[in-house]
Specification:
Blueprint lengths: L5 H25 L11 E3 L2 E3 L5 H9 L2 H17 L3 H4 L7 H15 L6 H19 L6 H10 L3
Antiparallel strand pairs: 1-2
Helix pairs in contact: 1-3, 1-6, 3-5, 5-6
Keywords: Membrane, Transmembrane, Transmembrane helix
Organism: Rhodotorula diobovata
Protein name: DUF7727 domain-containing protein
Length: 155
């Protein structure tokens, strides 16, 4: 049996998360609703009416789709980082697991606010934990991993 390479599994999870968030965000542009509207809401003739304290979320999700745009940008950045986009592949920043942990923490938070991307936020959360585990285990990726594997004879 082999050993699970956490950052490889996390990469596949990140690609899945980005595709799912991108697709869900396109739906969110047409059907605007924020996920946490049921907290403190009252029942009205048109359904749940968000409380006045949720006015900020109504503005940035329903009136003008700011969070949807941020989610779409996050999905495209994730795809560019994980696919990888050729100019990014040569950068040392591309091989940083810590960057990915911070990026997917942000992506998870933003995706959890929009109704359509609340479930893909769980995918981002699992991706975040997989990359954090890879970081904790000391995994390295990219050219550094290939050169260290060649040096130790584990090719």
């Amino acid at each position: 049996m082999g050993v699970l390479i956490w950052h490889d599994w996390a990469r596949l999870l990140a690609l899945t998360s980005a595709c799912y968030v991108g697709w869900a965000t396109l739906w969110a542009f047409f059907y605007r609703k924020f996920f946490w509207d049921f907290v403190g809401a009252s029942l009205g003739p048109e359904g749940l009416v968000p409380p006045p304290s949720a006015h900020f979320f109504v503005v940035v999700i329903v009136d003008f789709p700011v969070l949807q745009i941020i989610n779409l940008v996050n999905a495209l950045v994730t795809l560019a980082l994980e696919w990888p986009f050729p100019p990014l592949k040569r950068l040392k920043l591309h091989r940083s697991l810590l960057l990915r942990v911070f990026l997917y923490t942000w992506c998870t938070f933003v995706a959890s606010l929009v109704y359509q991307t609340a479930f893909p936020a769980l995918f981002y959360l699992v991706t975040l934990f997989a990359y954090a585990t890879a970081l904790a285990k000391g995994e390295i990726m990219g050219r550094d991993a290939q050169s260290s594997a060649a040096a130790t004879g584990k090719v």
